[in-house]
Structures are given as C-alpha cells and as structure tokens.
Amino acid sequence: MYDVLTSRYGFSCPSHGETHVALSSFRLIEQLPGAAHPAVYHVRFACACGDEHDGLVSHDDLDWAPLGLAAGEFLNLMTSRIEPVSLELADLAAARIGAGEWPWSFFCYPEEQPRAVFPSSFSLLAAGDDQVGLAVRCPHCSRLSLNLVSREHVDVPFHNDREVGVVEHVFHDDALETLEAFRSELWSASFDARRLTLE
Ligand SMILES: [Zn+2]
Ligand SMILES: [Zn+2]
Predict the structure, then answer these.
(1) How far is CA 95 from the centre of its chain?
(2) How close is the Cα of 139 to the center of ligand 2, in Å?
(3) What's the Cα-to-Cα distance from 114 to each of 86, 110, 142, 195, rounded to whole Å?
(4) Which of 87-96, 143-152, 177-186 has the lowest mean pLDDT?
C-alpha cells in the first residue's frame, strides 16, 4: 500500500490499473464511520491520468507507514540479502520524535501556535505548482486551520517548513465540508506568514 522507499501510496486507477501517488496528491481524507479499530480512511486523490479517484487507506498506512513502521523489505547491497527495513527506520523515527522533532506539523490559527500532527488530521488538500493548501483539523482543539505549505512539508516526514502561510480566519465546523467550498476559500484567501517552530 505505502512504499517507504518512494514515499508513494499505491491505488487502483480505472484507466492505468495501478497508480502511485504522494501524500500531497491526496485531495480529501476522511475517517469512515463504524470501523473504529483499526480506523479506515476514505481518500480522494489526484491521479497521473488526470482524473481524481477514491481509495481506502488504513490508519497505519496513513500515519505510521511513512515513518517506516509498516515498511516492507529492501535489498541490502552489502550482503545481497532482502532485509526488513522497518526496524531501522522505526528506531530512527522514534529517536527523532524523542528529541522533540515532529514528522508533521501545522499552524493552528484558533490557538495561535504550531502543533504536531499526523496525516490523518489533514482533511482537505489542494496543490499548486510548488505549494499545497492544507485544511487541518487540530488534534488538540478540534478546530480547522488553513495552511499553505511546501510539497516537502507534506510528503517528507520530518521536513517542516520554517514558515507557513496561514489564513487568519476561524472556520465554523461545517465551513469546509466539501472540496468545492475548500477550494473557493483557499483561492480567495490571503495568507499571513507564521513561524513554525515547535518547542
Ligand atoms: Zn487514474
Ligand atoms: Zn488547535
């Protein structure tokens, strides 16, 4: 499902059969009601074929696989053996989190402070040429914030932009229900810069 070496999620495409997309190509992420453990997420993603498709992602694949916690195997060129890559990456991720680094972060506007976050809290995404608009539901205060970040900020764990764009607006709970509402809000909004330094 998630390939840790290419940082891509695998989905099926009606015209190509199979496709691999980065997290920044996701457009919508929503937890399916019911199956609480393990949680399953419905995602809509922008495919290389030009269309958007729907797919399902497990909570593990969404939040933990990019950190190597559900990774497959890799070919060790020193020993010519296939070895599990997961333990080494997981140790590295755990060490960095322990040292106060976070794999993903965003700026919570209602709280006026940066917050650590996991991809399952990214509810809506829109990609420009090199920037990504991101609606995040804060895991602390449950409110929505709209950030403008780099692709790497989304796709590369532990790559956090020093500064992100923030829409200075407190959104109602149902304000960004649909992709259409989100996109029109995003393209009409003005962004203010905020430092994204997690203490
Ligand atoms: Zn496709
Ligand atoms: Zn918050």
Answers:
(1) 21
(2) 7
(3) 29, 11, 14, 8
(4) 87-96
Report the pLDDT value the prediction gives residue 161, as an integer from 0 to 100: 95
Number of domains making up the chain: 1
For the segment 164-190, the average pLDDT, to the nearest whole number, is: 84
Residue 141 tokens read as 């205060």
Ligand nearest to the CA of 110: 2
| Ligand 1 centroid to residue 5 C-alpha, Å | 22
Inside any domain, residue 117: yes
Domain encompassing residue 187? 105-195
Gap from CA of 124 to ligand 2 centroid (Å): 16
**Mean pLDDT score of the chain:** 86
| Number of the ligand closest to the Cα of 44 | 1
Residue 160 CA to chain centroid, in angstroms?
12
pTM comes to: 0.86
Give the pLDDT of residue 66.
87
- Is 97 contained in some domain? no
